[in-house]
Amino acid sequence: MPRHNPALHRSQKPPMTPGRRRLLIIGAVLLIAALGWALATVLKPAIQRTIVITTGADNGIYRGFADRYAPLLKRDGITLDIRSSTGSIENYQRLKDPDSEYEVGFIQSGTTSPKETDHLQTIAAVSYEPIWVFYRADTIVNRLAQLRGKRIATGVPGSGLLNVAQVLLSYSGVTGDNTTLLEMDAAKAYQDLENGTLDAAFFIGRPDASMQQTLLNSDLKLMSFAQADALVQKFPSLSKITFPRASTSIVNDLPRADVTLLAATALLVSKDTLHPALAYLLLEAARTVHGGEDYFTPLGAFPNLNTDEFPISDESVRYFKSGRPFLQRYLPFWLASFIERRLLILVPFMALLIGLLQALPRMAAARIKNRLVVWYREIKSLEDEIWRTPQPTPDQIAQWREEIENIDANASQIRVPQRYFQDVYALKQAIGIVRERIFQAAAKIQ
C-alpha cells in the first residue's frame, strides 16, 4: 500500500514530519550501537591466559609455592607470571593498587591491616609458616624477654617476618631502645650467628626448606616458645604448633624434645576482579600443592578458609562446599570457560531472539490485518456520514458513489496470503453493504 493514498481522505494519517523521521533515525542508530557493543562484549576472549603473581624472595617459601603452581596451571593453558618481591608487605602494597598488573599474591597473616577499600579477597589459607628463633647461649632461652639487650636479626624490610618479630618482641618488652635489632636476610643472619656477631635471629619457613635444614643441623639452639598460648591470645593471626622430637634426624635424635613454635598462615590473596574460572584453577593447584600432611598438619588440613584477614571469595566458599563447577569438572578448561563466559552471556540474547521469532508471525498478521482495517475505517466513516444525512443532495450522492468505488478498487488490489482471503471477502461484503446504503439514499431523492 502506498505511503499516501488519495483514496484515504477520511482516515489517512498525515505524512511523517522531518523531525519525527530524524528521531527515528537517531533511535535506530543508537539501537545498532548498543547491539554492536553487546556483540563486542560477547566476542571478547573467553578468559585471560596469564596470571601475574607476586611472591617473595627468589629462594623463599612463597616463590617455592608459585613454582609448584605454575606447571599445574600450565596444563589448562594458563601461564603463571611469577614476580619476586621483598615479602608479604610489598605483596599487599602491590595487590591493593587497583592500577597494578598484579592479580594474585601471598600474604602472611598478621602482617597487614586490610581495609574494605583494598578490594582484595582470600582465595585460601594454604600453609603454616613456622617462626623459628635460633640463638647462641649457654643457657636455655624459652622466653623472648630473655633476649633483651642482645643483638637480634628480625628479617628484611617489607617482609612479614620483620613485622611479626617486632610485634612479638614488643610484647616481651624488647625494643630498639634496649636491644640491638638488626634487619638482614636469612643467609646473612645465619652467617652472623655462626661467627658470633649475632646472639639470636628470627627465621620463617618450612622445616624442609634448605635454610631451615641448615639451621636445624647446625650447632645453634632452637627456642621453644614457653609462652606460646599467651602470645597467640594477644596475636590471633598466629597459631601454636609443635615440631616433634627427632623430626630433623631420628638417628641423631634432633631435636631431642618437642619444640613449641608459633606460626603465621600463608594466604593466597587476589584482587576481587579476578575471573572466577581462574580462582577455581588456583584452588585446584593449591589443593594439589598443600593438601598433603606435614610436620604440623594432617592430610587435607590445607588449603582451608580458616582466616578472617580478608573477605573470603565467593568462588572459594562454593569450592569448599561442592568442588569445582560442573562444567569445569567434566569439560576441558577452555571449553568450560567458553560456555560460562560466552554462552551464558548469550542466554538473554537468545531469549530475546526466541521472543522475536515467536512475535514475528503475530507482527506479520497484525500488519496484514492493518491493511484491511484501514479500509474498514473508511467504510465506517462513509456509512456514518450516510446515516447522519437523511436528505442528501445529488452532489453528496455522487461523492459517496465515487468514494465507495475507489475503496472497492483499492481493496481489490490488496495482496495477502491465501489464509487471509476470507478477510478480503468480508471487506468486499462490507463494501457491498455500504454501496446498498448509497443506492437507498439515492432512491429517496428521485
Automatic annotation (TrEMBL):
Domain of life (superkingdom): Bacteria
KW Cytoplasm (keyword) present: no
Coiled coil stretches, renumbered: none
Keyword Membrane: yes
Keywords: Membrane, Transmembrane, Transmembrane helix
Transmembrane segments: 343-361
Signal peptide extent: none
InterPro entries named in the record: TRAP_TAXI
Database matches in Pfam families: NMT1_3 (PF16868)
This protein's name: TRAP-type transport system periplasmic component-like protein
